[in-house]
Write a structure and sequence with these properties.
By secondary structure, this protein is mainly beta. The chain contains 2 helices and 43 strands. It has a domain at 438-567. Strands 1, 2, 37, 38, 39, 40, 41, 42 and 43 form a 9-stranded mixed sheet that branches. A 5-stranded mixed sheet has the order 7-6-5-4-29, with no helix packed on it. Strands 8-9-10-11 form a 4-stranded antiparallel sheet, with no helix packed on it.
Length: 577
């Protein structure tokens, strides 16, 4: 994952680098006759009418289930040895299915036991969820998974605050454990340390950690068992985001509540806490709803899709990357049959159109949108619409930084070619590549570096396959950034993965230590800004536990590349180390 959050309140660029993209040429394959599509954080999976499962996008922790881990899969990877699959769900970095015999299988990331097979070891191939059968619904969340079996709800995975509310009080629940008090359930969806389940009679019950009113009008920052939400009509569908909930009444009215600071409640406001289910007044009658990390999308009764909430990755359909607090019609879609099931941590949206093709938009850094190239999109992309070969080099953004310079020779003629992945013209041979020794981003030490080669101004090299690579630079070099801290960061329960909040707190303290002042609160000329790196889940977290890198730079406010900012030309060190 590569998340770039530009917080003008702190004016800090925080980077949680999750996906190492290794672009490869792979034949695309048209995916017709889809009956379900599911979005994880960096990967997407689809189920076709024959019961075959296909996944694409991030595969760093084996999310494809094909027995290997790779940076990213640009084309659909068919799940082997399974046919007649009934359902698929994509989580933060794991995937789950219900097979033809109503058994559950999961694979991928498993640091907290969310694969449900009695271990915390990741698996690159499907493993059967233990001690459960007759599974009718499954949801892969961020740190846990939940399923429905014979009307009962079972959950497994992270339970640090007893948020799963199962019969197990273990911090890591490694096999399915029943959630008491729920009967006749037909659907369950996980948010961030909370979950909700819908009964066959239309009762929606939620449980876990109460924050921002998402569990209703109860005390904040406490853990609660399942309780029925106060909706004045039976519920026929619902969705759960990172911190908000939306439910459709039998009348087609949509109600939303919980955290609303990004406009995700659709009530024309950005109120942080809404504890009462509130009607989305500007929306026509709807029949399906799906929530992502900071946003909401609904399918109305005329088969149109409306989205609202966070827009930093274009997931609300707005090309200006601004949040939207009211429903807006997604352009570029025809008649839509269904909306995909989503992980509460995803930032892209997928639907199935009336011709049974998948269409995706939003966050696309790991090629999870189904067009075999990196990049976000506000316009729906039909998943693997045509056959052909993926060529990510040709799709590199215009005006991208020219990182690598090569010299090409033909007889006595020399040509210089530069770019993200330059190649010599036909008939020319490469004779020189100007690229110095690189440093892996978690091996950075105090000192000055360049994000690209040759030294250039792009601070966060989004859209590049080598974005975890940096180059040593003199502190008098133009466009450099300067590392002010490299070491361990305090985490909750000594978790190997620092959070954005923990990194921000630590790096802000380091900034004050070396510069003697707080980080800027507004964009100012000559201001020195703060950014940070920390490891991915999986191999990096194991090799670099609790590792954090804090660095500073000066912002050139005239130049922006996607979500990435440019640094000003600086001819001296920004701080004394």
């Amino acid at each position: 994952m590569k998340v770039i959050t530009l917080k003008l309140t702190l004016v800090s660029l925080s980077l949680s680098l999750f996906t190492a993209i290794g672009l490869s040429s792979q034949a695309q394959a048209t995916l017709p006759n889809l009956k379900q599509i599911a979005t994880g954080f960096g990967h997407t999976c689809a189920l076709d009418s024959s019961g075959s499962v296909y996944c694409w996008g991030n595969n760093e922790i084996g999310q494809m289930g094909n027995g290997t881990a790779s940076a990213a899969e640009p084309g659909p990877v068919k799940l082997k040895d399974f046919s007649g699959v009934k359902s698929v769900s994509a989580g933060l970095a794991h995937t789950c299915i219900i097979d033809s015999k109503d058994d559950a299988y999961c694979w991928g990331q498993n640091d907290n036991g969310k694969l449900g097979y009695g271990s915390t070891e990741k698996s690159y191939t499907p493993v059967k969820v233990k001690d459960i059968s007759n599974v009718s619904f499954i949801h892969a969340g961020r740190t846990a998974s939940c399923l429905v079996s014979q009307g009962d709800v079972y959950c497994f995975g992270s339970n640090q605050l007893n948020e799963l509310q199962t019969t197990s009080d273990e911090k890591l629940v490694l096999t399915p454990s029943k959630v008491p008090g729920l009967t006749s359930s037909r659907k369950v969806v996980l948010g961030t340390q909370f979950a909700c389940a819908l009964s066959t009679t239309g009762d929606l019950s939620c449980w876990g950690v109460q924050l921002n009113g998402r569990l209703g009008a109860v005390e904040e920052n406490k853990v609660f068992p399942p309780s029925k939400m106060a909706i004045n009509e039976p519920v026929k569908d619902f969705g759960v985001g990172a911190g908000h909930i939306c439910a459709i009444g039998n009348s087609g009215t949509l109600y939303c509540w919980g955290w609303g600071e990004r406009g995700q409640l659709g009530n024309s406001a950005t109120t942080a806490t809404v504890a009462v289910p509130t009607r989305v007044a500007s929306l026509p009658a709807v029949k399906e709803v799906v929530l992502n990390r900071f946003g909401t999308c609904a399918l109305d009764t005329t088969n149109k899709v409306f989205c609202w909430g966070g827009g930093e990755f274009l997931q609300n359909g707005s090309s200006d990357k601004k949040d939207v607090a009211e429903p807006r019609l997604i352009s570029g879609l025809g008649s839509v049959k269904s909306i995909g099931l989503a992980s509460s941590y995803t930032s892209h949206v997928c639907v199935i159109d009336s011709n049974n093709y998948g269409n995706c938009w939003g966050y696309g850094f790991s090629m999870q949108l189904g067009n075999s190239v990196q990049g976000d999109s506000a316009i729906p992309i039909q998943v693997f619409k045509t056959s052909g070969s993926a060529n990510p080099t040709e799709s590199a953004p215009k005006n991208s930084v020219l990182d690598i310079v090569i010299e090409c020779k033909k007889g006595t003629t020399i040509k210089v070619v530069s770019g993200i992945s330059p190649k010599c013209p036909s008939g020319f041979s490469e004779v020189l590549k100007k690229k110095p020794k690189s440093t892996f981003y978690l091996d950075l030490k105090k000192g000055c570096y360049s994000a690209n080669f040759p030294v250039s101004s792009l601070i966060s090299p989004q859209g590049r396959k080598d974005y975890k690579t940096h180059y040593e630079a003199k502190c008098t070099s133009p466009y450099h950034f300067q590392v002010i801290y490299s070491g361990k960061v305090a985490t909750t329960n000594n978790s190997p993965l620092p959070t954005q909040e923990q990194m921000g707190k630590h790096c802000q303290a380091e900034y004050k230590k070396v510069l003697g002042k707080e980080t800027p609160t507004t964009i100012i000329g000559g201001g020195i800004y703060l950014s940070w790196y920390f490891p991915d889940a999986g191999i990096e977290a194991s090799k670099y536990p609790q590792k954090g890198i804090c660095y500073i730079w000066k912002w050139d406010s005239k130049r922006i590349y996607g979500d990435a900012a440019y640094a000003q030309v600086v001819t001296s060190a920004l701080a004394r180390n």
